[in-house]
Amino acid sequence: MSVKEFFFGFSDDTKAQFPWLFVDYDIDRHTCRRTVPMQVLSLGMSRTGTASMKKALEILGYPTCHGFDMHANVKDGDMWGEAFAAKYFGDTSTVLDRNFWDKMLGHVSATTDTPANCFGPELIASYPEAKVILVERDVDAWYTSFDQAVIVSNEIPHWFRALLEQLSEKAWKLRHIIPGIMKGQFQARDIPEWRSKAKTVYKEHYAEIRGLLEDQPDRLLEYQLGNGWKPLCEFLGKDIPDVEFPRINESAQHDTMIKIVFLQMARNVFIASVKTALPVVVAFFLWRDWS
């Protein structure tokens, strides 16, 4: 990230590394339907290798949803917001049934990461034919990673967040996501409570998913990152690929992505301000010279 990219746009290298941050498909999922079968629900919490699992599932032939994907289609924020409202905030106008998920996730055969993992019970019930994967880390190691990558990046003043939402279309479209995770999934009113509840919610999440599948053990794979292709491919009935199992440094990727997103927002705000202010400045000097 550089001053040059702020004023003149992002380099081709940056765009190639994070392509989903530089497109907007502008798809309204409300109008969509299922085009591929839902086959795999990877419901581990964020910061448990979800980006690596996404890549692995895609290598095996499953189009996969990950939280990063929202940046390539910010209208997804609308339906995710409806899902959070229905599950956590008492909105009865939305039913989280198969019809809803076929619209929201009809373009993918697998899910991983947040926000999909917030709706594990609903997805398991909606897709009884789908297999379920749980990737779990030591809770203390997970908490350190989650705090540094997710919670810290959201420690921004409310006024600044509100300003971004007013001036950045992306921030506005995705405004429901973090409140949905913090106040919904983690049942926290603020950042300190988010931290204090994080480990408990983490443990409860895994216990809930295991409990739902207690009588369907063949449907669940408990996977540890580092185990490679064999257990995953045996579980899914796939041949082992002739490539190494993907290992993505999610911390570094997330940190860089956050910087790009904020730089994008700041740049868009700057450009909008210049476009608004420039005619006023020109008109002022013309008026002054004319006078």
Automatic annotation (TrEMBL):
Record protein name field: Efflux pump antibiotic resistance protein
Domain of life: Eukaryota
Transmembrane region(s): 269-287
InterPro entries: P-loop_NTPase, Sulfotransfer_4
Keywords: Membrane, Transmembrane, Transmembrane helix
